[in-house]
Write a structure and sequence with these properties.
277 residues, globular, mainly alpha
Length: 277
């Protein structure tokens, strides 16, 4: 992998991790287009880059959540957990993020081999699920926007978005697109649906990073310049994608991403099927 390829893949990872177009599908497509295959070291640094981007963007919310979560542990010890839980929205948000992360953790642990086999299969698999992503997004835009935000979020909405994130482990099914659509379908405010989706990504990306990091020692002989530049590109592109999405979902429709997912999904699907013959 050369420097140009590393930067391009880093940009694609950063943008598609938070835009509702599936990072897994696009990484497969781009690597096939460039004729390269990212090693474990590169994948690990790309996940770290997108993790840094989302943590930095929501740093003040995260600080408040951590502080409130620690206080809620103190409340638990003092026997007044529920009182504090319902009085502080950041305490609820912290616990709901933990709860909503459980489904993706279960799927990752028990179905890892089956999911890996899908990622190593033909391009028509992520292409098909990218088309599904476009359909989910399109339908969610036809639902009336609700008014549920951080102040009145309940475990039902949080768990529903968590289940959406678990489904998005499938290659081509966008994590941000699926979780945002799940939130809109159950009455979340558009802007908060996107915000909760991105915050919910933090433990998921962190988990993927830690799983890959344990194997990085076997790939330390790679050329690290493309890796480092791809890592930086992923941070910058990820931060810009979050900022753009929060503005776009508040002021405009996400239909453009539906059309994009449909177009790319159909083109890649037809191309991969034709290649089989």
């Amino acid at each position: 992998m050369d420097i140009f390829q590393g930067i391009i893949i880093g940009i694609v990872q950063g943008l598609t991790e938070f835009l509702p177009v599936s990072s897994s599908a696009h990484l497969v497509f781009v690597q096939n287009l460039l004729g390269v295959e990212a090693d474990i070291a590169f994948d690990t640094f790309l996940h770290l880059g997108t993790l840094i981007a989302v943590v930095w963007y929501f740093r003040w919310d995260i600080i408040k959540m951590i502080r409130s979560w620690i206080l809620s542990i103190q409340d638990l010890i003092q026997g007044r957990f529920m009182e504090g839980f319902y009085s502080d929205p950041y305490k609820r948000l912290a616990w709901y993020v933990i709860m909503a992360t459980i489904p993706v953790g279960i799927v990752g642990v028990f179905f890892e081999d089956a999911i890996d086999s899908l990622f190593s299969g033909a391009l028509y698999v992520p292409a098909f699920f990218l088309f599904v992503t476009g359909t989910i997004l399109y339908l969610s835009q036809r639902m009336a926007s609700g008014h549920i935000d951080m102040n009145n979020l309940s475990k039902k909405e949080a768990l529903w978005m968590g289940l959406g994130q678990a489904c998005a482990i499938l290659p081509g099914l966008s994590r941000s697109g699926t979780t945002i659509a799940a939130g809109l379908s159950i009455g979340l405010d558009k802007e908060f649906a996107a915000k909760f989706s991105f915050i919910l990504a933090i433990p998921a990306i962190l988990g993927a990073f830690l799983v890959q990091a344990k194997d990085i020692g076997s790939a330390l002989d790679v050329n690290f310049l493309p890796v480092i530049l791809g890592f930086i590109a992923a941070i910058i592109a990820g931060y810009m994608a979050i900022r753009w999405m929060l503005d776009l979902i508040q002021n405009k429709s996400l239909d453009i991403f539906s059309y994009y997912c449909w177009a790319v999904g159909i083109i890649v699907f037809m191309g991969s099927i034709a290649h089989l013959f």
